[in-house]
Each structure stands twice: as structure tokens, then as C-alpha cells.
Specification:
This protein is mainly alpha-helical. The protein has helices spanning 3-7, 25-36, 41-54, 56-61, 67-77, 89-100, 109-133, 143-158, 160-168; strands at residues 178-182, 185-189.
Length: 191
């Protein structure tokens, strides 16, 4: 072997901290399968608790003031995409495909459901990772504001339709205030 091959050291992009590594593919598949078994809103909350306990980033959030607003917001954002509240399965799949920008043509109904569940699990993990990586500047904000910022950041890349849906429905915020969308930002108005 030549010495050039031995000296080769490619640069790799690694996460800032090994404590915030994303889900492994097998873990994501297992969580997606568990999510498909959820049939009631209360069981979805239990699923969120298991996902928080099962990932490194989630464990960093679990038991902190961020956990409650995270579970509440994800319950409001994610649960309506799942067949927990009735409604036709086809309409739910179409809405979720729109939110995640998924192309589901040619997939069996079971594969569509599994792909949707996989995307939901990936979004939840991305939100947990965003929260775990927030810097000191974020500590000055309320836990609900930190959670909302993490959801918006994760949605920018993983669920762009979620941002469009939020932009079309301005109105009361979670704490009684109001907000509006200005360009790529959400402006929270006290009121």
C-alpha cells in the first residue's frame, strides 16, 4: 500500500455532542411500529413518554420543565394526524402526506401508514434533539416558548406542511396571547 492511502483522513460532520445523536434506523422502525398500535389519545401520551425515555435527547428533556409543554404541543400537533380521533383513514393519510411532503403513490395502505408513523417518530426525535441542543440564550425563555421554537425548527426541514398549516390559522396562542406569521417568522403578540 502507498503511504498516501494510509495518510488519508476524511473529515466527517459529527453532531455537536454524542449525547444528542439521532435515532438509529432500527429504533426508528421499532417506534414507528409501536405508534401504529396506538388507538386512543391517552395511549398516544404514553407513547410520547416512551419515546422520551428511549432516546438520549429525549432523556435530556424528560423530567425537566420542558417535558409537559413538549408532550402537550406534540399531542396537539401530531395526534390529529393519527387515527385517534375518528375520521377517515384516507383523509388522515392525505393530510399527513401534505404536512410531511410525502409521496405515497403506489404504496399499499399498510406501507402508507408505516411511512407516516416513521415520519412522525422522526419529527418527535428531531424536536427532542433541538431542545437538547438549545444554548444558554434559550434558557431565558419560557419552557413553552422553547418547545414551540424547537417544533418550528424541526418542522422547517421535516414537516414543511405543518408550517403552512400554522400560517393559515392565526389566532389565540397557547397562553392566551395572539400570533401572526411575518415572512419566515412567527411574531407573538401579547394580548
Amino acid at each position: 500500500m502507498t503511504s498516501r492511502l494510509l495518510a488519508y483522513r476524511p473529515e466527517m460532520e459529527l453532531p455537536e455532542s454524542p449525547d444528542t445523536l439521532p435515532l438509529q434506523h432500527e429504533d426508528e422502525l421499532a417506534l414507528a411500529a409501536q405508534l401504529l398500535e396506538v388507538q386512543a389519545p391517552g395511549r398516544f401520551d404514553a407513547f410520547l413518554a416512551r419515546q422520551l425515555a428511549g432516546t438520549v435527547a429525549g432523556r435530556q428533556v424528560r423530567g425537566t420543565p420542558l417535558e409537559r409543554p413538549l408532550r402537550q404541543l406534540l399531542g396537539r400537533v401530531v395526534a390529529p394526524m393519527l387515527p385517534l380521533h375518528g375520521g377517515s383513514a384516507q383523509a388522515l393519510k392525505q393530510r399527513a402526506a401534505h404536512i410531511f411532503g410525502m409521496e405515497l403513490e403506489g404504496l399499499s395502505p399498510e406501507d402508507k401508514e408505516f411511512e407516516l408513523a416513521r415520519h412522525v417518530v422522526h419529527l418527535i426525535d428531531a424536536v427532542n434533539t433541538e431542545l437538547a441542543q438549545q444554548g444558554r440564550a434559550a434558557a431565558a425563555r419560557t419552557p413553552a416558548a422553547r418547545v414551540e421554537a424547537a417544533v418550528l425548527q424541526a418542522a422547517r426541514t421535516l414537516a414543511p406542511g405543518l408550517l403552512k398549516h400554522a400560517a393559515q390559522t392565526p389566532g389565540p396562542g397557547r397562553d392566551g396571547g395572539y400570533w401572526r406569521r411575518e415572512g419566515g417568522h412567527i411574531v407573538v403578540l401579547d394580548g
